[in-house]
Amino acid sequence: MLFTRDLIYCLMAVPNWIGHNLHNTYGILKVFYIMWLRPLRGGLISSEHPYVTGKSPVDGELIWEKNIVYSSKRKREFSESDSLIVKRVMKFLSRMVENSSATINHPNGKKNRMPPAVNYIHGTVHYNGVSLIFDDFKDALEHFTDRRFYFDFLKMVMIEKREPTIIFRDRDYDPDEFAIFSCFMKTRFPFFGNPNGNKKRLHWGTPSPQPAFNLIIGWWITPTLRLRFKDKHDDILRPPVAKQKYLLRDDYGVLGRRKYLFPELLWSRFTYFRIRLRGDRGGMYFTDKRKIDNGFLYDPSNLITLKERLVEKFFGVSQ
C-alpha cells in the first residue's frame, strides 16, 4: 500500500510541477506589473499602519499570535514559546514594510534593497496570513504527507484566502534538507514557495530570523494592488482567523512519511544547477544581486522606469 501511495505521488509530480510553473509565471507577471509597468510608489501607508505595526485597529493588539492556525506537538524541548517564534518572523516581515512607509523625515519611505512593491507584499503576508509551526522539516513532512492534514490545510487556505507561513522551531537546521523540503512542498502543491532562513541563502529564498517556508498561493495580489487607492486601504485588513475552526485533529502526521522521494531530490538538484547557471545573479529574481552586493538601493522617490530597466538589462547601461 505504501508503494502504491508513493508511486501515485511520483506520477502526480509532473502535473504539480506544470501547475507550479504556470502559477509562478502568473505571480511573476503581477510583481513585474507593480514594479515596472505601474510601480507602487513608497509612502502609500504611514508608519502607524497595521502592515507596519502588526496591531489590529479593532483592539490594538498584535494579530500574529491570533493567526496561528496550527502548532504541532513538540517531540523535543525548545527554549522559546511558539508565540515568541512566530512574532520574531512576523516582526521581521513588518520591518520590511516599514522601510517603504511614510514618516516625517521620509515621506516616500527609505532607500532600500527592495522596491516598495516587494516590501508591501510582505505586509499582506504577515498581517492577513496564517502561521503553522512545526519542530523541523521531518515533522512538517509527516504532516503534509498525511492526506487528512493535506486536505484540511488546502481547504483552510482556499476558504480563508490567506497566505500560509510554515515556521520551524529548530534554528539549527541542515540547509540541504531545507532545500529538499522546499521542493517537496512545490511537488505536493501546484504553487511557488520560498525557503527563508537564518543560514545561507537557499534556492530563491531570502534571509529570515527563523527557518520559514512561504507557500505563495496568490492571495497577496488583490490587497497589494488596493494599496494604490487610499479609499480602499480599510478593505485590505483582515480580521483574525476564527479559532477552533481548522486543523483540529490531534493525530495529524501518523499516516505520513519521514523520507523524501525521488521527485523532490531531483528538483532540488535541478534548482541548484539552474541558479548556478545564473552566475553572479544568484537566486535573486526580481532584483539584480550584483547591483545589491555593490551597495545599490532603490530610491522610492525616483523609481526606475521600465524603459530604464530594459536599457540596463539589454545594454548594460544605467540611465
Written description of the protein model:
This protein is of the alpha/beta class and 319 residues long. It is built from eleven helices and five strands, in the order ααβααβααβαββαααα. Helix content is 45%, strand content 8%. Strands 1-2-3-5-4 form a five-stranded mixed sheet, with helices on both faces. The longest helix is centred in the first third of the chain and has 36 residues, at 2-37. The mean pLDDT is 87.
Q: Can you describe this structure in just a few lines?
A:
The chain has 11 helices and 5 strands, in the order ααβααβααβαββαααα. The protein has helices at about 1-35, 50-55, 80-100, 115-130, 135-145, 145-160, 175-190, 220-225, 260-275, 290-295, 305-315; strands at about 70, 130-135, 165-170, 190-195, 210-215. It has a 5-stranded mixed β-sheet with strand order 1-2-3-5-4, sandwiched between helices.
Name the overall outline.
globular
Largest sheet: 5 strands, mixed
Order of helices and strands: HHEHHEHHEHEEHHHH
Low-confidence stretches: none
Q: Numbering strands along the chain, what is their spatial order in the largest sheet?
A: 1-2-3-5-4
Helical content (DSSP H or I, runs of 4+)? 40-55%
The tally of strands reads: 5
N-to-C span: 62 Å
Mean of all residue-level pLDDT scores: 87
Write down the Rg: 20 Å
* Category by helix and strand content: alpha/beta
| Count of individual helical segments | 11
Strand portion? 5-15%
